[in-house]
């Protein structure tokens, strides 16, 4: 798989903690999924998933509650889910998921972020075919062999199970996301270091050191945009 998920998550959390950007992104996403369905995670699987992700990023409870209460109220905000695809230096590939109430603004800002930082936008489908939607769940306190045994006992399938530093990372089909978590909960594991539905590249690439710095600047510029929720790419940043 090539991704060190805990390193990626810690880097993002550390960067976002200084600006509270991650909290505002989660607040928007929680509002949207709660508004689209029931504002109750037990009857709204999409909301349940977002709340599980928010927990791994230590999003404060008051922010979560405020977003859900907003969804229950009479305030109506319309948001569109958008996906952009593009290229960075040395053939690197990037997917950008956004949530916006102004499509023209978001498209312009994403295009500018690419153009001003050594990248360029592609057409729909130009990059996504090189990625695969994947559930990623991380746990602590178990070996990869023990994690596999737990999943086998619950008759839950996984694509791959890898040990990364102090965690075990499970890669599974997206529709197995909740089943994997429930299997571990039944085994007494209730905290997850990672709980993501992501886009994994079929093959990661490595960039020269100077080009890697340029690439990271491009990714930072895209992630800094208010409407951008997730950024996926095929570069192994080590």
Automatic annotation (TrEMBL):
<feature type="domain" description="TACO1/YebC-like second and third">
    <location>
        <begin position="81"/>
        <end position="235"/>
    </location>
</feature>
<dbReference type="GO" id="GO:0003677">
    <property type="term" value="F:DNA binding"/>
</dbReference>
<dbReference type="InterPro" id="IPR017856">
    <property type="entry name" value="Integrase-like_N"/>
</dbReference>
<dbReference type="InterPro" id="IPR002876">
    <property type="entry name" value="Transcrip_reg_TACO1-like"/>
</dbReference>
<keyword id="KW-0238">DNA-binding</keyword>
<dbReference type="InterPro" id="IPR026564">
    <property type="entry name" value="Transcrip_reg_TACO1-like_dom3"/>
</dbReference>
<dbReference type="InterPro" id="IPR026562">
    <property type="entry name" value="Transcrip_reg_TACO1_YeeN"/>
</dbReference>
<dbReference type="InterPro" id="IPR049083">
    <property type="entry name" value="TACO1_YebC_N"/>
</dbReference>
<keyword id="KW-0805">Transcription regulation</keyword>
<feature type="domain" description="TACO1/YebC-like N-terminal">
    <location>
        <begin position="3"/>
        <end position="74"/>
    </location>
</feature>
<dbReference type="InterPro" id="IPR029072">
    <property type="entry name" value="YebC-like"/>
</dbReference>
<dbReference type="GO" id="GO:0005829">
    <property type="term" value="C:cytosol"/>
</dbReference>
<keyword id="KW-0963">Cytoplasm</keyword>
<dbReference type="Pfam" id="PF20772">
    <property type="entry name" value="TACO1_YebC_N"/>
</dbReference>
<dbReference type="Pfam" id="PF01709">
    <property type="entry name" value="Transcrip_reg"/>
</dbReference>
<protein>
    <recommendedName>
        <fullName>Probable transcriptional regulatory protein D3H55_11590</fullName>
    </recommendedName>
</protein>
<comment type="similarity">
    <text>Belongs to the TACO1 family. YeeN subfamily.</text>
</comment>
<dbReference type="InterPro" id="IPR048300">
    <property type="entry name" value="TACO1_YebC-like_2nd/3rd_dom"/>
</dbReference>
<dbReference type="GO" id="GO:0006355">
    <property type="term" value="P:regulation of DNA-templated transcription"/>
</dbReference>
<keyword id="KW-0804">Transcription</keyword>
């Amino acid at each position: 798989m090539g991704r060190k998920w805990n390193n990626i998550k810690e880097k993002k959390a550390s960067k976002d903690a200084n600006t509270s950007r991650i909290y505002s992104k989660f607040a928007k996403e929680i509002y949207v999924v709660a508004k689209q369905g029931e504002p109750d995670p037990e009857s709204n699987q999409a909301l349940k998933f977002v709340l599980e992700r928010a927990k791994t990023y230590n999003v404060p409870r008051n922010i979560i509650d405020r977003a859900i209460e907003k969804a229950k109220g009479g305030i109506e905000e319309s948001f569109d889910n958008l996906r952009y695809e593009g290229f960075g230096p040395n053939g690197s590939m990037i997917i950008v998921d956004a949530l916006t109430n102004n499509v023209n603004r978001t498209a312009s800002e994403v295009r500018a972020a690419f153009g001003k930082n050594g990248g360029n936008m592609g057409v729909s489908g130009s990059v996504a075919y090189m990625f695969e939607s994947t559930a990623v769940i991380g746990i602590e306190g178990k070996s990869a062999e023990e994690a596999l045994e737990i999943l086998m006992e619950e008759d839950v399938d996984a694509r791959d199970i890898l040990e990364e530093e102090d965690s075990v990372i499970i890669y599974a089909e997206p529709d197995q996301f909740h089943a994997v978590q429930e299997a571990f909960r039944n085994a007494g594991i209730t905290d997850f270091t990672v709980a993501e539905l992501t886009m994994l590249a079929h093959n990661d690439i490595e960039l020269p050191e100077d080009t890697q710095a340029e690439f990271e600047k491009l990714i930072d510029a895209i992630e800094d945009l208010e409407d951008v929720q997730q950024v996926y790419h095929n570069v192994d940043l080590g």
